[in-house]
Amino acid sequence: MRKRAPKARFLRHNEGYSSDATSKMRRRKVQDRRDIHGPAPKPALGLDVNWTLRSLMAAGLLSVCVVASAMSATVNASRAEEERKREAAIAEEAELVADLANYLAAETAATRQAMDDGPRLKPAMAMGDLIAAEDPTEGLASFDFTDLTVAKLDAEERKCLAQAIYYEARSEPRIGQLAVADVVLNRVKSPVYPNSICGVVFQGSERRTGCQFSFTCDGSMQARLNKRKWKEAQDLSGAVLAGVRAPVSRNATHYHASYVSPHWANTLTPTATIGTHKFYKFPSRRTVAAAPAAM
Length: 295
Description:
Organism: Hyphococcus luteus
Pfam family, one: Hydrolase_2
Region (Disordered): 15-40
Largest sheet: 3 strands, antiparallel
Strand order of the largest sheet: 1-3-2
Protein name: Cell wall hydrolase
GO molecular function, one term: hydrolase activity
Distance between the termini: 142 Å
Radius of gyration: 49 Å
C-alpha cells in the first residue's frame, strides 16, 4: 500500500500544472477579446463639452425670450400711450372746430340781423335841394373818426394773422393752423418781439435772410391765392381774435418744419409736435432777454 504515495504527489503536481495552464489560457482569452473589441471605452470629454454648450445655448435662448417679452410689453405700452395722445388731440381739435363753427354761425346771424335792422338808403336829393341846404357837412362834426381808425387797424391785424395761417399752415389740420396763430399771439405778448400782429408777422421782411416768417421775404406772396383756403384762413383769424383760441402750442414762440433742423432749436425747449411742425419756447427769462431778433 505504501507504493501508491508517489502517484499522489504526481497527481498533485499535475493539478498545479493544470491550474497554471488554465490561468494562462484565461488571460490569453481576455487578451484576445481586447484585441478583437479594442480597449474599454473611456468617458468622452467631448460629450461633457456638448452638454455644456447645449446648456449655455438654452440659457441664452431663455434670456432672449425674456428680453423679447419685455421689449414687446414696452412697445405695446408706448403704442397705447401714443394712441391715447392721438385720441386726446382729436378730441381737442373737434372741440376747437365746434367752437369755430359756433362762432361762424353767430357771425352770420349777427350780420344778417344788422342788415335787416340797419339804416336804409334815403332817396337821392335833387341837385337844387342839395345846393340850397345850409350846411351839408354839419352832421360830420359829431362823427368819431377814431372808430374808423380802430376798425382799420383791426382789419389789418386780422389780415396779417390770416396771411400767417394761410402761407405757413394752409395744408395743416385745423389744430395745426391754430398752433401757428397761437405762436403769433404769444410773440405779440413777449417783450422780445413787436407788440402788434402785423409787426410780428412782417418783422425782418425788409431783409431777404432776416424775416421771421419765410413767406414774407421769399416771394410766396406773389403766388396766386387759393380762394377757398384763403377764406378759411380769414375765418379762422377772425375767430381767434374774437376769442376762439386754445393754447395748443403750449406757449410756444418758435416753430419749424419737421424736415429741417435750424441751429436755434437746440437752445429752446420743445413744447409740441403738431402736424409737420415742431414747436418751442424760451427755457427761461434770461434766455428771453438775450434772444436775438433773428430767432
